Amino acid sequence: MSRIWFTRFPVSRAIPAAGFTGIAACVVAGVLSMVSLHAAPVLGPWVPLFKGIDHARGTNAPDASNPDRTVVNVARVDLTDPDIRLKPTPRIATGYNDGFRETGGMTVSRYLQTQKAQLAINANFFDQGQYYLPEGTPMDLGGLSIREGEVVSSQDSAVDSSVIAFDSSNRPSVIYTNWPAQSTAGVFTAVAGVYPVVVKGANVAHSYANLPGNLHDAQPRTLYGISADRRYLYLMTIDGRQPGYSVGALDYESANWMLAAGAADAINMDGGGSTTLVIENSLGLPERLNSSSAVADSGKERTVGSHLAVFAKPLAGFFSEVKVMADDEAASISWKTGESSVSWIEYGPTADLGSKTTVPAISGTNHSALLTGLTAGTAYTYRFVATPASGTQTSPLYAFTTTNYNAFQSLIELTNTWKFSTAAQSGTAWAGKSHNDAAWAGPSPGVLWVDVRVAGGNALIPSKSTQLQADPANAGYPYTTYYFRTHVQVASAAFSRVLIGEGYIDDGAVFYLNGVEVSRLRMDPTADITSSTLALSYPCSGDATCADSLQLDGTPLVDGDNVIAVEVHNYNLRSADMTFGMTLQAVRSAPPAPLVGIANGATGALELTWDRGGFVLQQADSPTGPWIEVPGPVVMSPHVTTASALARYYRLNR
Fold first, then answer.
1. In this structure, are 393 and 285 located in the same domain?
2. What is the domain count for the chain?
3. Residues 166 and 215 in one domain
4. Domain that holds residue 119
5. b/e for 564-587, b at 16 or more Cβ within 10 A?
6. What is the pLDDT of residues 416-458, one digit of tens each?
7. Per residue in 232-273, pLDDT tens?
8. Do 378 and 506 have their domain in common?
């Protein structure tokens, strides 16, 4: 959340790192007397989410003295786990300026997904002050932020000066007040919060109870903490502003929650509607653990300027060591099972699945399968099923996306020439290859337009070239419908049946390929189109100043000459303008040949590797064959085999 949301406590009240022992000792007694008046926090059991990451959920036990409920989610990260990595938000991609333009804003869920992390949470305070800005909006962070040894945000004031820092081995240190700024030598990762609430095992947050500003009221909060032995990092969210579910927490209540979790030091980070804790689910998608007040209020997460991502390995389970090599129309998948069993994959383009691989006849613990007949550039959901002696096992749902090896042939540029007519056309014969358009005007280059309001037309429409006439029978307004034709040459039938492009079209249009209708834009999808049919709506703010994405069915495309025809319809009879111009490309799949490598391994073995999935490894004693599948079959790289005294040849086959 933006720094303008809170009134800060005076800097003079910030507790310096030195002399904390004496202050902490006097704080404990005061806090204990206050806690006795309120319901104690109750934290649930730790549940493993990933290797090195556990999760607990908690709530207080409301009573007569404190009827309000508070809901807490906390992740415990084992900093001694060698697979744990921490990554705050990186510098903005272009135009970085320390202290002004530091990061690109993003929701916490999007940050987790783009980083391919397993857990993410909001971190430092930030500016801009608006909450739902477009992702990528430049942000200025409060306090210190360091990612992989690179300073993203310097500590430039006493505000936002409580820092948790880590070296390259994830060994943590806590700086309660980082002002004047300490040296960042040896710091690999760092984030900053507003002020400490737990210091050396003591709740110090009562110091802020009488300070002005709603920061110290019951609010949603994000807190970071470290255990006394420095093994665990605690990442906590406290939900708030949701009466009946969770009202939020005061400073000293937040501290008590961190103490209950196991933190010996804790700092209050960003909060309010920015408070968000997200994990990666089995499909690789973000899943919120807490109930953000922003989402409860608006239905969407806030764009925040600072995040912390945590990377971890999956938990060991019955199914493990999953590896996927997805290609354009096939995918290779390997996995292991905890017991010898028959195992297979169920998969499909949705969570309903619908397909499955062949059920093998042989049991084992190492498994692989080849999925074929897939669609390029498509997300697939899958799961494993196994039938060991101990009973059927089914995995959670997982996901992968096939690749899309596309090559493009340009058919139409924005400046393409068109023949055009304002005479009413019936049926679709006018759009076919055999239609005689000798009496039509043109050919003239796009973009073609007419505008009776402004001489020269709207200056924001790109590439305006040919001005068309208006309809004298319609009080000088444009015709309801304009008709356009052009010829394009296609060299190869290998091009796919998808045509894509952009259109500057005002208002609606119907597209034809060789006389066959292939798409509609802002036109009734079921109506019989005539010269008097009106468009359903219009682009942008009524002018073709922004491009529509076009996708046309390319099935009627043939080798050689083709005719693209378009009829453009106005939104009403007194529409003051009409605009038409478009680009178009034919798309075909052009997968590269897989690269196969062979190397000598240990003890005379050979290791074969390849860079694409979806193939079966075959072998032969001669380049001319006969070729047979390597026993398995082998569908996953790498494959290690015993070297043969005779020449042996290998290839990949689909």
1. no
2. 4
3. yes
4. 3-311
5. bbbbbbbbeeebbbbbbbbbbbbb
6. 999 999 999 989 999 999 999 999 999 999 899 999 988 888 8
7. 999 999 999 999 899 999 999 999 999 999 999 999 999 999
8. no
